[in-house]
Amino acid sequence: MTRIRISRVLAQGEDGQSVTISGWVRSKRVSKNFAFLVINDGSSQTDIQCIIDADKPFYDDLGRANTGASVRIDGVLKESPGKGQAWEVQVDKLEVVGESGDGYPLQKKGHSMEFLREIAHIRGRSNTFGAVYRVRNQLAMMVHEFFQSRGFQWAHTPILTASDCEGAGEMFQVTTLDLKNLPKTKSGDIDYTQDFFGKATNLTVSGQLNGEALALSLGDIYTFGPTFRAENSNTTRHLAEFWMVEPEMAFANLHDNSILAEEFLRFMFTQIAERCEEELSFLGKHFKNMSSEQIRELGAHSFGRISYSDAIKELESASTKFEFPVEWGIDLQTEHEKYLSEEVFKKPVIVTDYPKDIKAFYMKLNGDDKTVAAMDVLVPRIGEIIGGSQREDRYDVLKARMEAHDIPVDEMRWYLELRKYGGCPHAGFGLGFERLVQYVTGMGNIRDVIPFPRVPQSIDF
Amino acid sequence: MTRIRISRVLAQGEDGQSVTISGWVRSKRVSKNFAFLVINDGSSQTDIQCIIDADKPFYDDLGRANTGASVRIDGVLKESPGKGQAWEVQVDKLEVVGESGDGYPLQKKGHSMEFLREIAHIRGRSNTFGAVYRVRNQLAMMVHEFFQSRGFQWAHTPILTASDCEGAGEMFQVTTLDLKNLPKTKSGDIDYTQDFFGKATNLTVSGQLNGEALALSLGDIYTFGPTFRAENSNTTRHLAEFWMVEPEMAFANLHDNSILAEEFLRFMFTQIAERCEEELSFLGKHFKNMSSEQIRELGAHSFGRISYSDAIKELESASTKFEFPVEWGIDLQTEHEKYLSEEVFKKPVIVTDYPKDIKAFYMKLNGDDKTVAAMDVLVPRIGEIIGGSQREDRYDVLKARMEAHDIPVDEMRWYLELRKYGGCPHAGFGLGFERLVQYVTGMGNIRDVIPFPRVPQSIDF
User: Fold this and answer.
1) What's the ipTM?
2) Under CATH, which number does the domain A124-170+205-448 receive?
């Protein structure tokens, strides 16, 4: 018989149904007359309890069915008399498929998150990481669902790029040159014409610039893929490799952009609370996170709106003492962002029209010549979760801004040309996907929301 | 009024409906009494025709609405008297949002594919690339739909890896070291402890090994993300950066794997023919590709099955003269693969149990000690489209195979441990996503099925 997932048994099981279940032993209790095996197969937060009568011929095999062993069980579904579980399996046949070996590292006692990171190849079998990974999968699919249902197309923008002007931080270099024997030009520089692509190559820090080209062909697109920053930041909020969501809309301005961002986040909050209630309830209990009710609430109300200039006034008149002093022109710090969303608005808020000097070259210059059509979405507990802007669509203005930012105009000719050939107002934003997973799951360290985290000095697995 | 997508107008328009359309001018015809503008906004293969009466005040603006210009049109939907179009727009207001500039490169006349590759930032506005990109988006979403509906979780496996043993070809090196001033160890080697991750780092050639760890936690997973090969192959079938789909199932053997691969491909063929009929019909006409009817047919019948050994017998007894001689032990060449699927089975066929010496170290050794539980899916016209296997789940056998293949066992300890701690039979396969897009769209060159292709000596845009 083909195995049936435990999630399916729990959702659609019927009393007396014959089932085959395969999974890993979470715990075992053996007594004189019967034994209990608690099994999880990764499909669901809830385990299933299996009961084995002592007269079964395979009763002795139970010795091998230790915590972590993989088993296959044929049996019959019964309504469970136990508290908090709807079904249990009366076992007819037990096969220990793979023993758990000496020193199986994932025991029932709680392990530290640091230890679990050292066994990243196995931590997915724990309650915590099973929950996080299922929430991650669900959030990822909801990204697609949201944008596709609105007619956005998923665009695969390149990871490898010769451009280093995206201005979002340090980049990783990619090469096939033999580092022990680097080819040199006559003038003694490295001869990149002999490298794979014929020029120095990096890992992308954003798909936006390519995304703009595709939005100006297909209308509305979004990217959703890995992105890289070579920042030497050993924090709980930074990864060297992370996933970004970057929608881009043609024929759209900052207002349209802020509506999209708000509708997107409200959809994510409302729906994840609905779809992963068991996982969020487990995580909420163990990690002092928001309850699924609180997450749902975040999506239930419209977001606040405030301009950067008014936000500065709010901060200046605050009675709170900030570590970083406030004046017009500063980049908002997390403490400021949290104050605005937690204290002033008591909900997510979108701040618009930041000073041009603290924002990227591609953002549309406003009429005041001092601010750009940028926006950040700030949420309680963490501050900024989304950053975006209307893009500068005037050829001459963009060219001047590029020159002012020392962007090599020649190399970026194609990007400028998007403003020359049927250009139009367009806008988009970026969301660091792990930040969202972290926010929703309450994981304190971003290394715990991606299966195999990449951070400075750490690339095992 | 918010713009409405042309795809929506065509599907759900009503006579007399007021609409706002934004898009790019495909062509213009001006006469004394009225003018026609043909508009496309990237949402649909079919353009929409807009009619402007000569008495409109903005009639003179038409001079600026050249091919490639972006426009915004307010008007009323009318049933069209023209052939092959259901709707046209009677224009009330026209705004030229962005002119197309002198020398707009995408003129109505046909351009060569080579030329279009040189304007990759704009080629998405052509009929051909609009079609390819929409088919690509649809296929990508169907990958998710297929696996998610079967309870597989989308797993984000890392791009950056310290492992170079995946054995699937040349790798790109990733570094933050200053190449002009490389740190050296006392013995004169490059000192990778000073590199970002503290050791030599590469771009992944496959997410499989990490995917196995996740399948052995979550049950069934699939990866779908970018993958890299630094092979210096300037062909129509190779990209340095491409997207792979790699499902992995716990508690599954080669038979389960071949069923999954067959059901997956049949779903893709049947559904894409349904959902992108307009695009496929356009491409079929222009690129001598299969018609959407032929693509649907591929999915309508069960696939053939044959063992490698029997396939060799078929090839040996063929009257066809092959360029590469056939004998047991050879790696099948495209000519052999095409013969098997086109001549012997006349449909897709799954070849199983290849000689161990031509396959990767992680494939499960069969009882004959000569073959492994591998499978390739071969399709007419191109040959292999999917490769997969049951994985070796016996600790000792795998360790011996790794040693025989010079795989550093120490570094891969975590991978071996998956066989020690609750291991189980598991299996999976890999599909090069661009090969599938190429197959379905009929594009002769793989560079034309990804928006910004990365190939040797070419990394513009």
Assistant:
1) 0.97
2) 3.30.930.10
